[in-house]
Structure formats: structure tokens, C-alpha cells
Amino acid sequence: MKKLFLTIFLFFGFLILKAQTLSVTTDKNPAIVGEQILIKFTVNAKAKEFKSPNFQGLRILSGPNSSSSSSYSFVNGESKSEITTTYSYYVSASKEGSYTISPASVYVNKKNILSNPLTIKVVKGKKQENNNIEKNLFITVNTSKKNIIVGEQIIVSYKLHTRLELENTELSQIPNLNGFWKKDLESSSRFKREVIDGVPYNTAIIKKTVLTAQKSGKLEIDPIKVTCSIRITNQRNRRDPFANFFNSYNVREEIISSKAITINVKDLPSPKPNNFLGSVGNFEISSKIDKKEINANDALTYTIKLTGTGNIELIKPFDINFPKDFEVYDPKVTEKIFQGGIKRSIKTFEYLLIPRYEGEYKIPSYDFSFFDTKQKKYISKYTKSHNINVLKSSNDEETVTSFNQQKVESINNDINYIKTNTFFAEKDNQTIKLNIFYFLFFLPLILMIIVRAIISYKQRNPLNTLDKKHRLAKKIASKRLKKANEFMKDNNFDGFFEEIEKSLWGYFADKFKVDIINLSKESIDNYFTINGITIEIKNQFINLLNRCELERYSPVSNKSEQLSSLLSEAEKIIINVEAELK
Q1: Residue 221 counted as domain residue
Q2: Distance of alpha carbon 91 from alpha carbon 36, whole angstroms
Q3: What percentage of the chain has pLDDT greater than the value 90?
Q4: What integer pLDDT is reported at residue 386 of this predicted model?
Q5: Which of 357, 391, 425 is the last residue of a domain?
Q6: Among candidates 115, 96, 30, 29, which has minimal Cα distance to 58?
Q7: Among the listed residues 151, 200, 156, 189, the one whose alpha carbon sits nearest the alpha carbon of residue 33
Q8: What is the mean pLDDT of the chain?
Q9: Which residues pair with 75 in a beta bridge?
Q10: What pLDDT was estimated at residue 283?
């Protein structure tokens, strides 16, 4: 028992000793010439015999300044104490350049611990007017590319730069991005230090999006607008120190916007392969079946797996030439999309197949073509073909071969006996009886009267038809928004708004037979106008899409109260579109 406790003690002692590191941090990197820089060396233990590093030309203004702190906690019956020792320096640089601070060392638990070297970049400073809002608070837009082809993807980042003290920021207007299919990415809103033209700013990425070009030409990335609450320090009142303490600043709101950027989009080169469906990127495709031999009326799964980078999220299920004797269900689509397809992603299509007749069948190879943006040419990849042996059904169901697909009935006897008795009857001269004749004669007139009565009734009671149409539209809306309802119950705000947006786009694409790659707010305008949808409904549909994009970036505190109303609004707009379609 003593050996066990000794082993446990040494093991945890080793972990504690191993966890002790001497870390080095700085508050400014890059820094400006003449600016005061704070450098800290920290170890999570009681330390001594600290040896300073070589600052390589940096001027030491103060240090080393040592300090220590301790904390004590008692959790689940176990006590834990922690001591932290810090050595800090204030330094500055007299000229621009890159300065590497050598490792420092400290003595802890009979061991010397070294820090890592630290490199600080120092740039030339520039005077800045503190009263100029435009130069102290602005948004920049960065794009990974400005010259692309249709179907190619770019990353667009909106970065906020500030030298002012901000209390709050909120997106007030998001870009329409007409001509692009967009996928918002997660972005960290933490501020980092960045020096631009010799001026230090605190910067944060407020929005990051993957855009896929849907048409050729000069496409504009329109501005984004942000409402910023700026803290403005009040002037000191020497006569009333309490007023300085309780009312030290005011808040002023400013709306700032980014500049528009133009992206040059070229059309895909011609001629295009016959089986090209708009896929752009670099892909691999494979297929498999879970059974090579199966009984008739049993189910098997045929899976196509697509991997690669590009507009993989926009690729629809493939039109596979399955055998005619197979009953085919809509595929189950699963996807793992990373960075909107910029990074390697996976998409699978699982087709449920049920062969109805015994025989030998073959699922042919599928030819998948895409345009490779690196090689600048069309490339075709092929899946394997699969042979399937279908046996007779195992549950005594009558099956036939696939050659005629007709049921053959057996007879009880090979040759029936010949009838020997014959009965004769006198033939009636009247070919059709009078009652049947009159019935057939007046039947068209009776049908005309009934049809006319039905039409007249519907004209007098149009609500019955409208009610049926309304009920059908409500079923369509509920089916589309089912997943969004689940996100709402789980308080998954981002998933909820994204699913509402997907449902509206998916409804529009399926209802008006629009390819996903051609989806845009411009296409909504065109198709709604052609199909007689009123301007009011069209504006409601587009405004709801814009609202979903905006709500994802608004403060979280009030979102839970809006989810139910937004879901009802989405359901209502789908119902209204269905009701107006003829």
C-alpha cells in the first residue's frame, strides 16, 4: 500500500513539475518606434534566481519588476493552491526593425526553466488626428481573389479597425451580393493589434463569407454597414470629483460602411462536356453497393461519395441510369462541408434500390465532369460499375424474369373434355332493349347538367377551392421548415436562421425549377414577375432572406423572443407564394 501511494505521489509530482513553464508575452506586437512595450515572464510556481534575457538593442525603461500572487480553492472535498510569479519589463525601440529577445531562466523546484525566444517587430510611427472619426474608425474588405470564373469560390472578410473605445457594435446592413451564392463562416470577434501605415489599430473580423460566382461579368460586393457605440470621455470637473467618477463618459453612435469592391468573373470555356453540371474545383468520386446478391423485393443501398474542394455544397444528386426493373427512392444526402468548400469536404448520396424481378442486372459507371481551376480545363472522373444477382423472392411472392415481367397462370388439366350437349335459343330481333336505349340516349344530357351544376356551385363557393389550396400550401411550408422548428426548440440561433434561409432558397429552387448555381435575389425578382407573384409578396420574400442574414449577427439577448414570430412569417410567405401561383 505504501508503494502504491508513493507511486501515485511521484506520478502527480512529475505532472506538476512538467506543467511548470516560463511563458513570455507582450502587449504590443508589432510596436511603434518610441512606444512603451510591456514584456512579462510568468511561471505557475514560486520561483527565484531569475536571469534576465538579452533584449538585443531594446532600451530597458523599467525592470525586472517581480510580483507574485496566490489562489486557493476547495472543490469536492479537495483543496488546491496555486502560486504565480511574474517578472515584467518596460522597454522601447529607438529605430524600426525586428528584435529577438533571448530566453530568460528561473529556478523552480531545483530546476532551471527556460522561456521561449520572443521576436517583436517595430515599425515607424505616424501622427494621427484623434478627432477624425473616418481615420480612427473604419471597415476594410479583403478578398482572396478578384479575377475568377463562374462557379469559382473566393473568401471575403470584413475587418473593423478602431483607435477609439467602443462599447458595442452591431451590423445594421448586410451586402446583397447579387450574382453570388454565399456561405457565412464563423469568425472570431476578438480584437487584435495591427499597425497600418505607422498607425496602431485594434482590429477584428466582423464577417467572413465564402462567395461562389453564379454568372459572368463585373460583380459588385456591395458595402456592409455597422452601427458603433463610441465612448467619449467627459472633461474633468475639478470642483465636483464625484461627477467625474459617476459620469466619466458619454456614448455616441456612428454608422460606418465599407467600400464596394468589383470582382471580374469570366464565363467557363467552351465547348463544355455533355455531362457537365456546373461543378468547379478539384474532386474525386467513388461508388459502392452493400450487396452483390439479393432476393427480389429486398432493398439494397447504392452510395456515391464525392470528396474535394470547390462548390461541392451546390452539387445536386446525380441522375444515375439504374435498371428499369429497380424501384428507386430519392437519395439521402449527407455532407461535411469545411470553410464552404474551400477546404477538403465530403458529400455522399445514398440511393435505396428495390429490385422487383429476378435476374442479372448492372448499375453502370457514372461519368462526373468538373472544371479544374488549377489546370484550367475540364476533367472527367468515373465511378465503378456494379453487377447484381437478383434471386427469387424468399417470402413466397410470385416473381418472374425480367424479360416479359408477366405473371403466368397454370391450368388444372392438360386437355379439357369436349362438350357433348348443345342448347339452342331463339334470337331476339330487338338488338337493344328500349329502356337501355333511352338511358344511353339521355345520358350525355344528364352528365352535362351535372357538370354545369358543379361549375356553378364552385363559382358561387370559391372558398372551398382556396381552402384546399391553402391546406396544401401549409403542408409544403411545414415540411420545409421542420428542421428550423427543431433548431428553435434547442435554442440554436445560428442553425435556426441558417435553416430558415436554406428553406426559402430551397423552396424557390424546387418550385420554379431553378438550378442552385443560378440562385440570386435577381432570379427571385424575374421568376416571381413571370409567374404573376405580386410585388408585395416578392419584397416580403427577399426582405425575410435579408433579415435572416442580419439576425445571425445581432445580439443574442433578444433572439429567443423573435424565433417563433420569424418561423410563422417564413411559413406565411411560402403559403402566400403558393396561393398566388396558378
Answers
A1: yes
A2: 6
A3: 10
A4: 92
A5: 391
A6: 96
A7: 200
A8: 77
A9: 78
A10: 93
Q: Are residues 140 and 241 in the same domain?
A: yes
- Interval 279-294 mean pLDDT: 90
Q: Are residues 206 and 104 in the same domain?
A: no
In a domain, 28, yes or no: yes
Q: Which three cell numbers stand for residue 515?
A: 438550378
Helix (H, G, I), strand (E, B) or coil at 552: coil
Averaged pLDDT for residues 261-268: 90
Please write the tens of the pLDDT for every residue from 73-113: 655 666 666 778 888 888 888 787 888 888 888 877 777 77
- Please report, for the domain that includes residue 305, its CATH number: 2.60.40.740
Which residue type sits at 375?
Q
470 and 383, same structural domain?
no
Q: What CATH code is carried by the domain that includes residue 222? A: 2.60.40
Check whether 466 has a pLDDT greater than 60: no
Same domain, 365 and 490: no
**Tell me, what CATH number does 90's domain have?**
2.60.40.10
pLDDT, position 9 = 46
Residue 351, amino acid: Y
- The whole domain housing 237 covers 133-266
Q: Give the chain's domain count.
A: 4
Residue 412 has a pLDDT of 46
Q: 255 and 150 in one domain?
A: yes
Name the nearest CA neighbour of 401 among 387, 386, 410, 390.
390
Helices (H) and strands (E) in the chain, counts: 10, 31
31 contacts 120 by C-beta, under 8 angstroms: yes
Strands 367-372, 276-289: pairing is: parallel
Average pLDDT for 192-198: 81
| pLDDT over threshold 70, residue 516 | no
Q: Are residues 119 and 144 in the same domain?
A: no
Strands 147-149 and 261-266, by their bridges, are parallel
Q: State how beta strands 31-32 and 118-123 pair.
A: parallel
258 in the same domain as 137: yes
* Domain final residue, candidates 362, 391, 420: 391
**SS3 label, residue 15:** helix
Instruction: Name the residue type at position 277.
Output: L
Judge if 204 and 329 occupy the same domain: no
437 has a pLDDT exceeding 80: no
Please give the helix or strand (H or E) that residue 381 lies within, else none.
strand 377-382
Rounded to an integer, the average pLDDT of 428-447 is 72
Average pLDDT over residues 43-52: 76
- Residue 151: CB atoms within 10 A of its CB come to 23
